[in-house]
Specification:
The protein is α/β, with parallel strands linked by helices. The protein contains six helices and five strands. It has one domain: 3-Layer(aba) Sandwich (Rossmann fold), CATH 3.40.50. The longest helix is centred in the middle third of the chain and has 17 residues. It binds adenosine-5'-diphosphate (ADP).
Amino acid sequence: MQGHKKIAIYPGTFDPITLGHIDIIERGSKLFDEVIVTLAVNVAKEPLFSTSERQQMIEEAIGGIPNVRVERFEGLLVDFAEKKGATVIIRGLRAISDFEYEFQMALMNRHLADGITTVFLMPHEKYTYLNSTIIKDVAAFGGDIRKFVTNFVAEKLIDKIQKKG
Ligand code: ADP
């Protein structure tokens, strides 16, 4: 049966997961049989949250969606996709500013593995200006972030910022 299932991966850093990410995950879960949220372990940018913390926050957010799971990955994304039998890479597109980088990556990944197709999903417009960096900045200065992340993530963010002083 594995071969008949449409499996998609949704890669990212998720530092932390936001309602924008969750919006994309929900849309993806309706389009594909399985969605694997693919948590990048080897990121150039030093994440605020550890891999385990980021994974825990994703797991909490996707808990209610039966065909979505999270897995860590290291190395080349298309290798991971092939290993999992995935034929689709999901990426979110918020604005023109996302386009150039996403376009380059999609074409490079196609060059590396022609059998894997990148699809772009647009979140609800209320999430188009959201990204993890902005949320961390707002939280660091004591701004209200509860409209942009789950309560679980909001608490973790507040905790983390208090610990960092
Ligand atoms: P990166 O892989 O650049 O570290 P992220 O981990 O933040 O990016 O995001 C993973 C994916 O989710 C990317 O495709 C990104 O465009 C998308 N994304 C991030 N924030 C949002 C949002 N608010 N709405 C829709 N898509 C988003």
